[in-house]
Amino acid sequence: MEEAEIKAVHYQKIKKVFSEISKVVIGMEELTNRLLIGLFTNGHVLLEGVPGLAKTLTINTLAKILDLKFQRLQFTPDLLPADLIGTMIYNQKEAEFEVKKGPIFANIILADEINRSPAKVQSALLEAMQERQVTIGETTFKLDKPFLVMATQNPVEQEGTYPLPEAQIDRFMMKVFVSYLNKDQELEVMRRMSNMSFRPRISAVLTRADIAAIQGLINKVTISSSLEKYIISLVDATRNPKNYNLNNEANYIQYGVSTRASIALNLAAKAIAFMDQRDYVLPEDIKEVVPDVFNHRIILNYEAEADGINTAQIIENILKNIPISKEE
């Protein structure tokens, strides 16, 4: 099969993924898109939204459609790193210690309310995300491929939580805000879920081999040098806003985005282009994912908080003021 035919097959399968998810959840197309971007580019996704918006249902359904092993981890203040990665237990029959693997050994992990657990547990998860391996005793185990972590943060009830440090949040490729459904979507959800016989049938669409193949195809998506420089300009504008005549923003930004942001933006734009059935990146692809890649990496100062300025406004002004350089 030629590459063009392989692409066509995978384009149709990705469409089918969205179709299957819509059988179960409504209004989660953008979240599904971002989760697929993370899966296809070896990234991880941080979600923020109030309870009851079907975040768990969405990723659980996606795991079934992709025929991948799913684990949900409820983070609580008494959780230990061993509860996550596993530990050594003594086998009395064999008179020796043996490894008991933890729930981290799955393909798709839902780390629910990650800010409910102390730093040691967060670090154990984030190390697994970064290194894609865990060490139990003296043995290091590679995690299965593909491996995607979707962590959630509850924006309400902050009492008794352990907010993730900026350096740890930076390891997430994207941070996505999940908002309420509109009235029509809410009506459809209510009708579906109040029907106790509602049992949607979904089928597996993508295999592990398909995901690996899509990752290879995304890697072949081209991005022009002018768009590469555009990404670098966007990143640099968060660090040196005055160089781009963003004088107001300079008063509010304490720290700009890290180098991980430029890498994530490049990869996410390529994934967007591929899922839009193109083998090249457009400026719109980059602009679409800039908020998700930047919003948890830009650190604002107290003056911004006092003036009611948030990162979304900063990002919007940066996008308005940074031009795309022409090809040399």
Polypeptide structure, described:
This protein has 328 residues and is of the alpha/beta class. It folds into two domains: 3-194 and 204-210, Rossmann fold (3-Layer(aba) Sandwich), CATH 3.40.50; 221-321, Orthogonal Bundle (Helicase, Ruva Protein, domain 3), CATH 1.10.8.80. Helices cover 46% and strands 15% of the residues. It has 14 helices and eleven strands. The protein has helices at residues 3-22, 29-40, 55-65, 81-85, 119-131, 166-169, 183-193, 208-219, 225-239, 247-250, 259-275, 283-294, 302-306, 311-321, and strands at residues 45-48, 70-74, 86-91, 96-101, 108-112, 133-136, 139-142, 148-153, 174-177, 253-255, 299-300. The strands form four sheets. A five-stranded parallel sheet has the order 2-5-8-1-9. The protein has a two-stranded antiparallel ribbon with strand order 3-4. A hairpin with a 2-residue loop joins strand 6 (133-136) and strand 7 (139-142). Helix 2 (29-40) packs across helix 11 (259-275) and helix 11 (259-275) crosses helix 12. The longest helix has 20 residues, at 3-22. The protein starts with a helix and ends in a 7-residue tail after the last helix. The model has no long low-confidence stretch (mean pLDDT 89).
